[in-house]
């Protein structure tokens, strides 16, 4: 949540990728997502592991019911 709150204070828009380490589709999206993240300058791309207990409230706030979710 701390990192998310910090993102909200930035002057740039951001995209969150909600993922799970066990998710095959998430694994397939990992490389393209990372590649785009290194290429764009005016948008922040960040990943959120839904299996992490610290991100539970963020997962619920965005109503994430499946992964990957952007």
Record the strand order, biggest sheet: 1-2
Order of helices and strands: HEHEH
Write down the overall mean pLDDT.
93
> Would you count the extended β strands for me?
2
* Major beta-sheet overview: 2 strands, parallel
Quickly count the helices: 3
What is the subunit organization of this protein? Answer: single chain
Q: State the separation between the terminal residues, measured CA to CA.
A: 17 Å
Task: Point out poorly predicted stretches.
Answer: none
Shape: flat
The portion of residues assigned to helices is: 40-55%
- Structural class assignment: alpha+beta
CA-atom Rg in angstroms: 12 Å
Beta content comes to: 15-25%
Question: Topology of this structure?
Answer:
Blueprint: H1 2-8, E1 14-19, H2 24-39, E2 44-49, H3 56-61
Parallel strand pairs: 1-2
Keywords:
flat; about 70 residues; alpha+beta; two-stranded parallel sheet; single chain; 3 helices; 2 strands; about 40% helix
Textual characterization of the structure:
The mean pLDDT is about 95. The chain has helices at about 1-10, 25-40, 55-60, and strands spanning about 15-20, 45-50. By secondary structure, it is an alpha+beta fold. A two-stranded parallel ribbon has the order 1-2. It starts with a helix and ends in a 9-residue tail after the last helix.
Structure summary:
The chain has 70 residues and is α+β, with helices and mostly antiparallel strands.
